Amino acid sequence: MVSRLTLYTRAGCHLCEQIEDLVATHAASCRLVDVDADTATRENFGLRVPVLTCGEAVLLEGRIEERELLAVLKSLR
Questions:
Q1: How does pLDDT run across 11-70, given as a tens digit for each residue?
Q2: Residue 25: which CATH number?
Q3: What is the β-pairing status of strands 51-54 and 57-61?
Q4: Domain range for 16
Q5: Is 15 exposed, middle or buried (0-12, 13-18, 19+ CB in 10 A)?
Q6: How many domains does the chain have?
Q7: How does residue 1 score in pLDDT terms, banded at 50, 70 and 90?
Q8: Are 12 and 34 within 8 A, CB to CB?
Q9: Backbone phi, psi, residue 57, to 5°
Q10: Cα dist. 76→9, 10, 18, 35, 72 in Å?
C-alpha cells in the first residue's frame, strides 16, 4: 500500500483534475494539497502542477499520462 503520496494541484487546472481522477482510481490513498494555500508551497510547485510526490521525492509533474502513473505506483509497492 502506498500511503505517503501527495498530489499538489490548483483550482482551475485541467491537468490537475485529470490526474486527481487517475490517482483516485489507482492509488489507495493520496493527500491532496492546493499549491495556492501558502506561499512556500506555491513557490515550490506553483509553476509545475500537478506534482506527485512520495515523501520528499518528486515522482511526476506536469502532463502526466496514465501509464506513467501506473508504472510509478507499481514501483512503490
A1: 999 999 999 999 999 987 999 999 999 999 999 999 999 999 999 999 999 999 999 999
A2: 3.40.30.10
A3: antiparallel
A4: 5-76
A5: middle
A6: 1
A7: very low
A8: no
A9: -85, 130
A10: 21, 25, 21, 24, 6
